[in-house]
Amino acid sequence: MVTRCCLEPEVCDNSTTAARLLSSRRNLSTRLTMWVLLGVLAALLTSSPTLASSFEDNLIHESFENFPACEDVLRAARQRPVRAPQPPDLKGTWVSTSCETRPGPRYVLRSYEFHRDRSFRLTLHVYRDPWCAHPSHTLTATGSHTHGIASWVTPGATEADYTLTKVLVTAHSHRDASDLASAINESCPGRVNKAWRPHKQYEVTSYQDSSSSSSPPAAALNDVTTWQDEDCSSTALASAWHELQLLRVEEEVKRPLTSRRKPRTRQGGEREKDFERNLGVDVVEDDLEDGPVRELFLGDLHTDASHAPLYRPTGFQQPLRNTRYMGSCAVCRTVARSSEKSPPHLHARPSLPLLLAGSWASSRCETRPYGMFLTRLLTFRPDTNEWEATLIFYQNPECGRPSFSLDAFGTYSVPPHAESEYDQDLLLKKLYLTPEDPNLADALNLYRGKGCGKPGSWKPGVRQDVTPTGGCVAVSLKVPSLEKEIFRIDVGPSGSLQLYTGQTPTTPHLHESAPRPTSWAPPLSQCRLAHPQVDNSLMPMVGARVAASSTSPIGSSLCSTLVRRLLLVLLVFVGRHLVL
After folding, report:
1. Are 544 and 516 contained in the same domain?
2. Distance CA 477, CA 405 (A)
3. Region class of 435: left (phi > 0), else alpha (psi between -120 and 50), else beta
4. Where in the sequence is the domain holding 523, given as residue range(s)?
5. pTM of the model
6. Are 488 and 550 within one domain?
7. Which helix (H) or strand (E) holds 5?
């Protein structure tokens, strides 16, 4: 290696600064180019239903062999080697692995720190956008917690109690500071004495020792008058911390299967990594070994905001990852480096077109309220607008002991008065139920009349059609029924496409007037079925439909085909490389 000496430090510093500035501008230019191209693609597919349908058909067939088998994905979700110590050890700092969506919707990033003496410091960053790129304010809560007994509602979880001592809020813009001050005054009239300023902490909750309860109110941090044992944040800022009432820590030895990625040569791999870094991609370093991953599961939040302050969790949220075991998680590192006055900024990106065609499977064991655990397999056929789903429910959080399974079939469509691009209506037309547990089969035999299937005929492992009885009361499903859903397509950490569905409501609704979900369930990974219903006939040309109504069939068909093929290549390229 040759070391270059410089006799004029100022010149060298200027040269280094100029080089860095030039590199930064090139990176920004590359990112902007990709955003523009992806935005144009999304606009074209949205404006032309015929183009979107043809594009979706060709995309699923051309990328079919690159997807992992659905059975492999589900097997990896069921066979994850995890260990859940009891009682859970919370010591350390735990951070979000992606931008989280809470009911409302409310977009947050979490950084929770727990100490050996059972005290904690919770930092919750709230954002205005679903990508967590524009922070609104940050809540900081301090207090202590105590572990209780094992939960009798949620297997594998530990109940806990917590005590808050102080909650601080920091706004990140003048508009947010004004909105927060108004919200606090609505909850606790007259508590804000002066106009709030951004990047400055304000105390909105204070719980102190009862021995000093007779002291008069004081001007707390930065122009907010607070009384002892007063909470001005739970209602105004929706800052219920009841998630601390249910805990579970998992230590994972091997990461689940997410996608198949071709190995890269050393020279080519470095070039690809540099290109991905320029796009803000979560680069998976080849020299990092897959070590143990520790995750913290906290209690879920009620999907109805009016019930959230009184709801005790019975399920789990998206897990937090311990900062000592972040691995290649770029979002984790960004959140870990943040603070109350310097919140993390993730990269914003345009929404991908809603291409539902194909199959999507759970990449890990999922949780639902009231101690339910399941894996999902969804399949969409855009040529007939039909969907089918296989949901297997389990008795333990590792998805090792099945309880029952559901096979549902129906059609899907865009609602007549859709309020967003995510809205879809799913019509359930046929439903099969298979009890896997003998105790459940005996319980189903107790239903008489049209409660759930043919009375007295349930046997373990035998599937039965419950459509003639109008569904099954035991699983709160009615046939036929219309379910209001939301769907979103995104790119996962490994570059593969993921499907997000609406979060299941905490309180089931058996009527069609139920509201649509406002938050997302865990994502599903795209996969291929072992025996897809695809024949060997040649696929139609992408531009054939447009050419039929064209005045110049040959030229228009060729042009349409080339344009659509270019769009297909662009989306596949972006889907594999554009990961934030």
Report:
1. no
2. 13
3. beta
4. 358-527
5. 0.75
6. no
7. none
